[in-house]
Specification:
Strand content of chain A: 5-15%
Helix content of chain A: 40-55%
Shape of chain A: globular
CATH topology of the largest domain in chain A: Aspartate Aminotransferase, domain 2
CATH architecture of the largest domain in chain A: 3-Layer(aba) Sandwich
Number of helices of chain A: 16
Largest interface: A-B, 135 and 135 residues
Largest sheet of chain A: 8 strands, mixed
Structural class of chain A: alpha/beta
CATH class of the largest domain in chain A: Alpha Beta
Number of strands of chain A: 16
Oligomer: homodimer
CATH superfamily of the largest domain in chain A: Type I PLP-dependent aspartate aminotransferase-like (Major domain)
Radius of gyration of chain A: 30 Å
């Protein structure tokens, strides 16, 4: 008989409960053939004595093995290793080739999309201090609350159905909560058939682009514009037309002239804070833009990625709040408020368009994560999201104020910038005769990493010499550290020039 | 002074802690203007006495309000409602239009994709018993384990970085765990640079289609084939070519003839169990298919959606295990093993192709849910996933056996079918002179719903008269109930004919 006593080692201090340790080891012996099919196992009393454990532990282990199909109990005879095992080694279908290695290069042709390559980041050292372009501080994310609510939701029996296939439009409770929340906070007047839950705003941009821009349709963007959006438009098959951006956002007069000579299918705006320059689209231009949309029948993709982050004044309502003609596709999300990893967003628009977007979304990833969506719905309903938002807003405002004050005091000779009214980044222009190539090279020597693809802010090659510097991820000490490093950089440049 | 004592009502039995009840109500009064900016609030001792609560509760509520920016403490003066409030009503930019309703119909043009409409399900009554086409039983999903592991992960400080932007390729630990797991269980020999984590297998099919089929490239599928895959290929711009499917899977001889006359860019196979007919691609044809792929330089999209579900014999290794030439794109996922809502899958292929797919995925939804991915990684490493898989496998086998036995005994006169070796559905052909249109109509009178778009199994209009009937979602009682209902349906048809 197999010497169970000598071969099974149980550790009371291990992380794994005793009965699972026991069943693990029995499975290993069954798999390896040391306990072949139809082997009789010792009775639970006997094995418990041998291993000096409670008999209940052995019974629990046997139950586990029975439920997994490794062993079976035959009445009045005892417990045996199953004669037909559930998992056996899979069969190879061609022995000759199976020892050779898989080739790691494709032998077929596919579509190469060079425009998408531009977003790759260099792998960087962890020791470096890195300047981000405006992302939230994940250290502030309310992860404990999320995990707690998530856990409570899974405990409720009626929530089990969230585990099966659900609506492509997203979890019903979340859609309802968002309709109320957005109607209240952003002046929208939407109903539930106008909203599709997405995986963050990026999926909203992707869906809208695929539906609006195939076959060389034209989309107008500001010059300069958020690069990932530009790439998404190009990838969908669209042609990008640019209009200038000034202190009041994109220039709608130039847009009007463009509409007269070319067929425009869509206009993309980050109305609340233009990306990258952080300016707000003025009320006058908002009205003008909607008039043009009506006249020329184009769609306005309003990407309201950081509506929640405004510091001084109350925000201007989004274009979507005045969309009386059915022209606006409104896109937002919770990645900035909660955490980049919580990829829940929404696409809002006229019902027919939302339906079409849902049909497309079904073949992309079928549906969202209903459990997480239910979690967010609950956190909106209890006010947890809004409370968290107010908290981080206060912190980000302090960080913005400190960062801008230090920039002004210590680096005012080198940079031009306006204090942004909201958002998580400052649009900083380097004065002549400095250039970012030199700066970023010398900065790296100081372990300060200015986002390696900073050229992305100038994707239309206008030579504006600006970049975004995110302040939200840095606490007071980190801000002071970055400023000191920048001072060092300019000191070293000036010394050598 | 504002009558706090009369206006604030705290309930000790409520779900919400006292200090949050207090801060909620104070916020409401601040927002409504009843406590205007710069109002002095009572001291904590005074307010505690008035409300008959502990002073610490008042302090906690004030701290909460301070951190949210609603109130501020001025040393030696007291506590005041903040003079510049963080959230004020947003400004409307066009008063004239803002009272009118949003139009719910678009005033712009976009791409309509009629082929995607075919998947819409009818909204059905909850009272009906519904025949599914082969989905897992979500009641068996290990949701408690998932929630527990998820919670533990969020508690670890170093996991906080999972909340920020991460790799487009997916969580590193999950990729590592999958490389080991798939190499061990499926005979793959891949490295970490050959895997991309997706949102379930559907995203893998979508990404591969977008890269392989744009601009009217040809893809070969079996006749008949999984409809959602066909729709995804069409949507990407591909042209579908069909070859027959028999007991050994798709006919590779016919495929070879096709390759001689047309340029084929890809072949789609559900090699383990062909969808919908459940047949397994034979070893001989697997080898032939790989030879053809090498000779004609096409990609094989191997959708191994239910590799884990095999009942009688050991499974044949996937094509990907013998991909010595770099032709196979291997797609799988955990939606079937764990639950449809856990939309984690993978795309495996030659490195260059995986990189291109990752670039495309970046503009679709940026990245996956790293917390959930880390959870799954842990559950694979501890063996929880495999243990769960063995458990449900045993249950599904019993359900298959019962379902097939009852079908044979009670409905053998009406149906032809083979007992499937694996998977979650039986491919059932209706004998002449019956037809599904009549059956499904009469069945609905019995509150039995045969998936309303059952015609989707015959998307090439070959008239095979077959549908898939899923057995996995039904327990013993439910199976007996469905069979009884079907017997009733045929009894009523025969009686009236």
């Amino acid at each position: 008989m197999f010497p169970f006593k000598n071969n099974i080692i149980l550790t009371r201090t291990a992380n794994r409960t005793l009965y699972l340790q026991l069943s693990d080891q029995l499975i290993r012996y069954i798999k390896s053939g040391k306990l072949p099919p139809a082997t009789k196992l010792p009775g639970s009393r006997k094995l418990a004595e041998d291993l000096m454990i409670h008999r209940k532990t052995v019974i629990a282990a046997y139950d586990e093995l029975i439920s997994q199909g490794w062993i079976e109990t035959i009445p009045a005879k005892g417990t045996f290793v199953t004669s037909t095992l559930p998992i056996i080694n899979p069969k190879d279908f061609d022995k000759k080739t199976s020892i050779r290695n898989t080739k790691n290069k494709s032998s077929f042709s596919y579509d190469i999309r060079p425009h998408l390559k531009r977003e790759l980041n260099k792998n960087t050292s962890k020791k470096n201090v890195r300047i981000e372009d405006g992302v939230p501080d994940h250290r502030l994310a309310p992860i404990d609350e999320i995990a707690k609510v998530y856990r409570n939701i899974t405990k409720k029996h009626h929530h089990r159905q969230l585990l099966t296939y659900g609506s492509v439009y997203g979890n019903y409770d979340l859609r309802m909560a968002l309709v109320t929340y957005l109607n209240q906070t952003r002046g929208l007047r939407i109903t539930i058939d106008q909203i599709l839950i997405t995986r963050g705003s990026q999926m909203g941009i992707y869906l809208a682009s695929q539906l609006l821009l195939r076959n060389r349709k034209r989309i107008v963007v500001g010059s300069t514009n958020y690069m990932t959006a530009d790439n998404t438009f190009t990838d969908a098959g669209g042609i990008i037309e640019q209009v200038p951006v000034d202190q009041n956002g994109i220039n709608t007069i130039v847009l009007e002239e463009l509409c007269k000579i070319k067929e425009i299918n869509a206009v993309y705006v980050t109305s609340h804070h233009h990306h990258p320059t952080t300016v707000t689209l003025s009320a006058k231009r908002r009205m003008h833009l909607l008039q043009l949309a009506k006249k020329y029948n184009f769609a306005v993709i309003e990407d309201d990625y950081d509506y929640d982050f405004h510091y001084n004044n109350s925000p201007i309502l989004p274009l979507a709040s005045n969309d009386i003609n059915g022209n606006v596709i409104y896109i937002g999300g919770f990645t900035k408020i909660i955490a980049p990893a919580m990829r829940i967003g929404y696409l809002i628009g006229p019902k027919d368009f939302v339906d079409e977007a849902a049909d497309l979304r079904r073949i992309i990833d079928r549906q969202g994560d209903q459990l997480l969506e239910q979690t967010l719905a609950q956190m909106i309903k209890t006010g947890d999201v809004q409370r968290h938002c107010n908290k981080v807003l206060k912190i980000y405002k302090q960080r913005r104020d400190l960062f801008c004050a230090l920039m002004k005091n210590k680096l005012g000779d080198y940079f031009d910038f306006e204090i942004p009214k909201g958002g998580m980044a400052v649009w900083v222009k380097l004065k002549k005769p400095y250039d970012w190539d030199t700066i970023s090279k010398i900065a790296l020597e100081q372990s300060l990493e200015i986002t390696p693809n900073w050229k992305r802010y100038d994707n239309d090659n206008s030579g504006h010499n600006g970049i975004r510097i995110g302040f939200a991820t840095m606490n007071e000490e980190e801000i002071q550290n970055v400023i000191e490093k920048l001072v060092e950089v300019f000191y070293s440049i000036d010394k050598n020039s």
